[in-house]
Amino acid sequence: MTRLPWPALAATALIAVLAILAPWLGLPNPVTMDVPHRLAGPSAAHWLGQDEFGRDVLTRLIWGARVSLSVAVSAAALACLIGTALGITGGYLRGIAEILTLRSIDVLLCFPPLLLALLVVTLLGPGATTLIPVLALVYLPGFTRVAYAGVLTARSQDYVEAMRVLGAGSGRIMLRTILPNIGGPVLVQFSLAMAAAVVLESGLSFLGLGVVPPAPSWGLMIGAARATMAQAPLLLLWPCLALTLTVLVMNALCDGLRDAVDPHPTYRPAARRLLDAIAPGLLPTPKAVLDLAHLTVEIDTPAGPIHPVRDVSLQVFPGETLAIVGESGSGKSVTSLAITGLLPGAAHVTEGAAFLDGTDLLRLPEESLRKLRGDKIAMVFQDPGSSLNPVHRIGAQIAEAIRAHRPLSDKAARAEAIALLRRVGLPDPDSRARAYPHELSGGQRQRVMIAIAIANHPSLLIADEPTTALDVTIQAQILELLSDLKRERGLALLFITHALPVVAEIADRVAVMYAGEIVETGPTAEVFLAPHHPYTAALLRSAPDEEGPPPVGIPGIVPPPTALPPGCTFAPRCPRAIPECTAAPPALRSAGAGRLTRCIRWNA
Amino acid sequence: MITTEHLGKSFPIGGLFNRHALHAVRDVSITVGRGETLGLVGESGSGKSTVGRLMLGLLPATTGRVLFEGQDLAAARPAQMRTLRRRLQLVFQDPYASLDPRRTIGAQIADALVIHKLVSPSFRPARVAALLDQVGLAPDHAARYPHQFSGGQRQRIGIARALASGPDFLVADEPVSALDVSVQAQVLALLAGLRAELGLAMLFISHDLPVVRHLADRVAVMYLGRIMEEGPVKAVFATPRHPYTQALLSAAPSLHPERRRARTLLQGDPPSPANPPSGCVFRTRCPIAAPACASTIPALAGLTHRVACIRV
Amino acid sequence: MWFLRRLGISVVLVWVAASVVFLAIHLVPGDPAELLLSQGGSAPDRAMVEELRDQLGLNRPLYVQYGQQMWRLLHFDLGRSMQDDSPVSEEILRRLPRTLELILAAGLMAVVIGIPGGTAAAMRRGSVFDRATSWLASLALAIPVFVVGTLIVMVFAQWLRWVPAGGFIAFAKDPVQHLILLAMPASAIGLGLSAVMFRMTRAAVLDVMLKDYVRTARAKGVKPGRILTRHVVRTALMPVITVLALYLGTLLGGTVLVEFVFNWPGLSGSLVSAVNARDYPQVVGIVLVISVLFVGLNLTVDIIYGLLDPRVRK
After folding, report:
1. Contacts of C99 in chain A (CB under 8 A)
2. Fewer beta carbons within 10 Å, N or C terminal of chain B?
3. Same domain as A527, residue A484
4. What does the pLDDT read at residue C38?
5. Does pLDDT of A180 surpass 80?
6. C96-270 maps to which CATH number?
7. Chain A neighbours among B 208-227 (CB < 8 Å)?
8. What is the pLDDT of residue B18?
9. Chains in contact with C via at least 3 Cβ–Cβ pairs below 8 Å
10. Best interface-test mutation with B: which of A1, A2, A164, A166 has the largest number of B CBs within 10 A?
């Protein structure tokens, strides 16, 4: 649970207290008439004036709140009780019970709410006692559906199945795991129903079909004041104001409760605070396709800024595959998103430069960067299921990538899209170009993503865990395809993965990341044969292989970016750590030809 | 100890008008002995998780039966089923979804003790502490909530919960696939240790062959709901006989690519389990398929190392 | 196939609605005829009760009544009004177009204001524009529709005297006056509806902007404007359309208040007078017609959904 909406809660409580205490506030009787002073303006005795029968307006407003709220609360409570019970029964028992409860409730949804209310009022006649069951009936389906949906969600949770595995009975499961699950949404529904009931009650009373005069009700007051609006416009304004304010406060309460129950991550607008001054020595290495220097990324969190990527430098050369390997939280994906300017809103680059063929991507305005993305620099993401737009045909999605960068006719782009699909090995490309993503398998969707990526002959392809979501035999196909493309087109490939065996298969060079930093780089074969950083060594020992000894884990956990240890970030888990390791953060140092390590003891 | 006989499970799919069956599992006969670990390997859609659920009696079998110490799970009376529940346990794949976020881990581990009335209430905290200690967590962690733990720690908690009732047979459904490599190895070592210490029989379900190699005694390879090959881990990994097993082993990336046997790259995707090929289900992707493969369903033949292929 | 199934469900729903309306009168405790005739607690005349029972066919067995009712409905025969003995269907046919006109005008206003406004607010998330419009939307949502209506009458008709306080003039007779008289009730409804559309659109656009496939489109280098129209708005509009249709559906009965305030002679107004007069056949007829329209509207939404999202069409 996040923060509760205290201001709205307090305002609602204030209105409720006023309504409850109405009889003891020393107000005049709300129905006592004073005809000689009808329509009198505000005075010391009657702060808000007197109505068409000379009754005190303020009294009637407060008593009106009492009527309005008691009807709304009773109706919402009644609907909540019955509706939730029906929803839980239907959702938990399924089968016949589900049909009986849910489908019968659905029938109520065939009628617009106000209409339903009018139909019942026809049969039962107007009055406050009729209103409660009428409004309850109107809001019943909402509760049933919310409870039903909550139960269904809860039922499919692993931890509910875990209770069944333990042999727990239905009663225990309902009480312990399902009820807490739907409590929040039902509470939200309750506040919604209450606010809506206040509006509906006043509306019905306004029509003369709700609360019966002379009992005070805002709807009735507005209706009556209409007749005298020329002489006493204030009389009309007061109940309008009271009603609107009450609904405003209750709506705010609903919104607040909903946010508290169903928290969405809050993103702040993107703000790219870039260092204007480029530090000396950041000039690009001429040969590299991508030259990333001293990249640091900052994310604003409520607890203060964190740095998931710190001082990351790497180069990718033409025709080469560089793998960034690391566990979750190592910062490998953030690095790739920073290079392409696709960081989520809360994250921004604070330092560093990323030269792609001589231009610094991190200092490029968005429009220039957009022109490079999908053209010279392309990306393939982890989940091919969600990375393609479900409502467009795959041929059109490839053609879109082509036409974003080249002035081709629609027809020519589509022809090229089909050729690309053939190149990435999608069977029957002419007809499959007209398929939607959901009609393809996971492996085929990833082939489509690759077709999009290579559409404009990029010089750099960034693949972020492109095979993690795929089965082993499909993974082998995709890795093969990427290797072929790299050879054929002289692509530079930046391959991001957590799987060491995949690195061994595909990468020429490897950069190992740990807790936001690169701890070791070098040619893959050499690094895997003789790692120069204890983390690399431990990671290799923990990877199960077909041959060799059983895997050995690394004790402890990766430090969260909010609580980095002093000095070397791996020192707390390192078997070879000495006191000097925690003294200062070690720098990347050269460890033989083409190799770097962030360990002060690499040759000790 | 636990045996399945020609186990099959189909799920109805489709709407009112085109209802048909999806055969998730067909004709699976496997045995797990006391203290033994059977690795069940397959890609997504192979039906390996369904076999696990069937063997725990969480799903009713459509055909065939599951025998636990000679007792048919489907024929067990409610009272017997309660006892069986205590003895058959499950470790889940997703360490985040399998723990109730609203209850302390101590309460969740104690659930089994409460449900089966295993220890008196006053001894429960001590038992929970002992269980936490057994899986390598501090006893004072019992009062914390799941979100205060890392993925690997949660998986330890899931294992402690499964152990609380004192089970004899444990199904571990991809228990390490959601974890980082360095943490995977920790959890695998824990499972191996517990198995030796408690003499647990275990069905270890995984898509990751190297992981199975290090933990299981025997391994069964599934494809589209059927067992393709089954045998001792060493034999299956050293001399895979079914073309699917061979392809699977050669497709798995290796830390030492230069030492790997020649790669057989399978073409295309597995067919849909709703509409499997006739005869041998693997024939559509098989490099050595013959016309006869379309007409006969190969039986799982052999003594200790069994293969379902008419071509070997 | 998918379409036929949806159509079938709708037909069943219409039948269910008709049955419920039929049963409603029989589910109420006490004799329906007596209940309908009793006014203000005085016992109704026995002869009159008998006559009404006979007229409504209440003397026959329930299943016979049900069969007859359904048979009549199949022939679009909704019976005769108890107030003036005119066929109910005639009255409905005369008034329904006016109500539909009102709803469509309000819906149009909501779409024109709410959807672009919501999209713009989402694109400028956290800006002054976003906060100001969001606040306005909250306010607009909080004012009940009859309050808006009453205030419009007070300001524009009473004080400023720009327009008459309400009424209806046929379009053929005086198009300008017709539109002016339509604009007032339509904007009373449209204000709240615009706020709903605004909030829905804003939330949906924000939601879709976080999707992986929007990131893919950005990675492709697609222009921001095209990302918005092709990848964001199309998917974001789906929930918005559902909500719009739902609200338009509730308006089928919900124009009652506005029609009353502005003296607009629509269907809902005659419903209120029928309720007040306990004119049972009239109430049943109107409720049924509106329910059928409601079901039809939901069917339309499903079809639009199917056109927008290929995954639904399976």
Report:
1. none
2. C
3. yes
4. 61
5. no
6. 1.10.3720.10
7. 208-211, 213-214
8. 63
9. A, B
10. A166
Please report the number of interchain residue pairs, chain B to chain C, with beta-carbon separation below 8 angstroms.
Answer: 3
Rounded to whole angstroms, the Cα distance separating A321 from B246 reads 28
Say what the pLDDT of residue A270 is.
36
Could you tell me if B145 and A200 are in contact, meaning their C-beta atoms sit under 8 angstroms apart? no
User: Average pLDDT of A121-147?
Assistant: 82
A39: left (phi over 0), alpha (psi -120 to 50) or beta: left
Q: What is the pLDDT of residues C103-141, one digit of tens each?
A: 999 999 999 999 999 999 998 888 899 999 989 998 998
Residue B206: partners with Cβ closer than 8 Å, 6 or more residues away? B39, B40, B41, B174, B176, B177, B212
CB C281 within 8 A of CB C217: no
Determine, for residues C150 and A222 on separate chains, whether the beta-carbon distance falls below 8 Å.
Answer: yes
List the chains bordering chain B where 3 or more Cβ pairs fall under 8 Å: A, C
Q: Is the pLDDT of residue A219 over 50?
A: yes
Q: Domain extents for chain C?
A: 96-270
Contact A202 C144 (CB under 8 A): yes
Task: Residue B15: list chain C partners with CB under 8 A.
Answer: 5
Whether residues A386 and C24 touch (CB distance < 8 A) is answered with no
pLDDT at A281: 38
User: Of the CATH numbers 3.40.1010.10, 3.40.50.300, 3.20.20.80, 3.30.310.50, which one belongs to the domain with range B2-101+165-307?
Assistant: 3.40.50.300
The residues, any chain, with a CB within 8 Å of residue B18's CB and separated by 6 or more, are none
Q: Lowest-pLDDT range, A91-105, A106-120, A269-283?
A: A269-283
Q: Is B68 on the interface with A (CB under 8 A)?
A: no
Mean of the per-residue pLDDT values of chain A: 85
Backbone angles phi, psi at A185, to 5 degrees: -60, -35
| Whether pTM exceeds 0.95 | no
Asked if the Cβ–Cβ distance from A473 to B43 is below 8 Å, we say yes
- Within 506-535 of A, beta carbons closer than 8 Å to B belong to 528
pLDDT tens by residue, B216-265: 999 999 999 999 999 999 999 999 999 999 999 888 888 887 766 677 78
Mean pLDDT of A2-31: 82
Tell me the residue type at B85: R
Residue type, A354: A
* CATH number of the CATH domain containing A76: 1.10.3720.10
Q: Is the peptide bond before A555 cis (omega within 30 degrees of 0)?
A: no
Q: Which residues of C touch A199 (CB under 8 A)?
A: 144
Q: What is the pLDDT of residue A424?
A: 92
pLDDT at C47: 77
Contact A342 C218 (CB under 8 A): yes
Which chains lie within 8 Å of chain A at 3 or more CB pairs, if any?
A: B, C
* Bridge partners for B39 per DSSP: B204, B219
Q: Which residues of C121-145 are buried (b: 16+ CB within 10 A; e: fewer)?
A: bbbebeeeebeebbeebeebbbbbb
Listed residue (A476, A470, A403, A395) closest to A437, CA to CA: A395
The DSSP secondary structure of A507-520, one letter per residue, reads: -SEEEEEETTEEEE
Q: Which of A57-66, A278-287, A451-460, C54-63 has the highest mean pLDDT?
A: A451-460
Position C314 scores a pLDDT of 54
The boundaries of the domain holding residue A395 are: 391-457
